[in-house]
Amino acid sequence: MPFPARICAFVGRFTDPRVGESVALLLPHLASRGVEVLVSEEVPVQAATGPYARVEERAIVERADLVIAIGGDGTLLYAARLAARRDVPLLGINRGRLGFLTDVMPQDVIASVDAALRGESELDRRPLLEARLQLGAGEAQASLALNDIVLQRLATGRMIDFETWIDGRYLNTHAGDGIVVASATGSTAYALSCGGPIVAPNLDVLVLAPISPHTLSDRPIVVSARSSIEIRLSERPETRGQVVCDGTVLGELAGGGRMTVRLAPQTVTLLHPGGYDYYRLLRSKLHWGRGSADHSR
User: Fold this and answer.
1) Which of 98, 205, 243, 262 could bridge to 250 as Cys pair (CB 3.0-4.6 Å)?
2) What is the CATH number of the domain that holds 280?
3) What is the pTM (predicted TM-score) of this model?
């Protein structure tokens, strides 16, 4: 990323009043500094004070020096897939509920964006996962995810049976509502609600967490992030599963269908305000543990 950055791309639900408030604050500020703002022409934008250009979504990261996601963590996950196409740094402004990944608070927007433009933010490179569905006859569907890739049952009230394989070696046979394959970044998301561990984001591992397993012994497992994970649905006509990447549906699998999950060649660089502390986020956002006092030195 060249510094100072001259072109920023905004990503968010701009019809949300909270997002619109931050957009209305940033547009004139960036214009006064000669920074061009790009917005996808596919997203509705309410009237805002300040200039911006509407471009095709795929062209956003081709031109931008910096992507700014304004909203909740879901917005940042969506923006991460865009930013990863050309390894454009990504800054998240929290206008959602939790804000675990979007860690710039509304009152700090101007200072944090200015720091990002100058190249003074803390850089945090995170790996992405790639899911690939085998659809037969050499046909496949693929997508990226920062947090997790989920296989879930498609029919309400019916469990799915499937096998997991690691690097070509049989791991287990599962019956339940599905399974979450999470990166270290995603260990604090869906996988956590399935009983998975909290994993520091700098660790090179993946978490496999069964969803509502039928047996008590079917527990989450941590494997190397360099592993190739294959999930095979049982050969039953009534078996149907849905694959979701960071909340976005990739496709469906019928009985006998297969999916592979591995590290993607792309990564995404998150930008954090100065003094970023992952463990402080765990305490403040997820209310992890009992430590509430500030022990910084």
Assistant:
1) 243
2) 3.40.50.10330
3) 0.91
